[in-house]
């Protein structure tokens, strides 16, 4: 669920303001949007995915950053659930420098944004190699992977717990079985 405020802001003002807030916000087309927390399943999937990535990547080269800022346009800063960015940034950085993987854990209420607006924004990032949308109510992932000719017009959809997500930009595969443990699906 999101709550939008009517106050327009530029990126610099937003980044200074959001640093002092206890809640989570994004800047969407110049408007501040409050992001509410997700249920237990969302948090468990987020943790599982971050752990699976962290155990596979070269930690001297890459950093797994939960809810870290990504500049996606002239008046928009998103905070995806997970960003993989080059390692070595300063401890005060608020924005990814060159994200190569972005993942969103999707609830039924965020499907339109995660698969629509956010996908369109993220897929324009020149550094991005893979965008993942992970369902929190069923075993299902939408995967966009950049090839030599760019991103395809739509995602590959995976729904088999025995499947793996190939992430060529990181040289890894992520088994769905490691993304969904301890998640009670109804």
Structure commentary:
With 186 residues, the protein is an alpha+beta fold. Helices cover 23% and strands 33% of the residues. It contains four helices and 13 strands. The chain has a six-stranded mixed sheet, sandwiched between helices. Strands 1-3-2 form a three-stranded antiparallel sheet, with helices on one face. Strands 5-6 form a two-stranded antiparallel sheet. The chain starts with a strand and ends in a 7-residue tail after the last helix. The mean pLDDT is 91.
Which helices and strands appear, and what pairs or packs with what?
Blueprint lengths: L1 E7 L2 H8 L5 E5 L2 E5 L4 H17 L5 E5 L3 E4 L2 E3 L3 E5 L14 E6 L4 H13 L6 E6 L5 E5 L10 E3 L5 E4 L4 E4 H4 L7
Parallel strand pairs: 8-9
Antiparallel strand pairs: 1-3, 2-3, 4-7, 5-6, 7-8, 9-10, 10-11, 12-13
Summarize the structure.
By secondary structure, this protein is of the alpha+beta class. It has helices at residues 11-18, 40-56, 111-123, 176-179; strands at residues 2-8, 24-28, 31-35, 62-66, 70-73, 76-78, 82-86, 101-106, 130-135, 141-145, 156-158, 164-167, 172-175.
């Amino acid at each position: 669920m999101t709550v939008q405020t009517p106050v327009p802001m530029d990126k610099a003002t937003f980044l200074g303001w959001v640093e002092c807030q206890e809640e989570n916000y994004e800047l969407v087309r110049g408007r501040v949007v409050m992001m509410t927390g997700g249920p237990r399943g969302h948090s468990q999937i987020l943790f599982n995915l971050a752990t699976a990535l962290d155990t596979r990547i070269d930690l001297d080269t890459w950093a797994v950053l939960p809810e870290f800022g990504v500049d996606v346009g002239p008046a928009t800063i998103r905070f995806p659930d997970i960003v993989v960015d080059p390692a070595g940034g300063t401890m005060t950085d608020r924005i990814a420098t060159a994200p190569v993987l972005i993942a969103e854990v999707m609830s039924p209420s965020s499907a339109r944004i995660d698969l629509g607006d956010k996908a369109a924004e993220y897929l324009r990032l020149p550094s991005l190699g893979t965008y993942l949308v992970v369902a929190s109510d069923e075993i299902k992932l939408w995967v966009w992977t950049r090839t030599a000719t760019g991103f395809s017009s739509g995602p590959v959809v995976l729904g088999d717990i025995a499947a793996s997500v190939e992430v060529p930009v990181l040289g890894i595969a992520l088994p769905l079985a490691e993304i969904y443990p301890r998640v009670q699906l109804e």
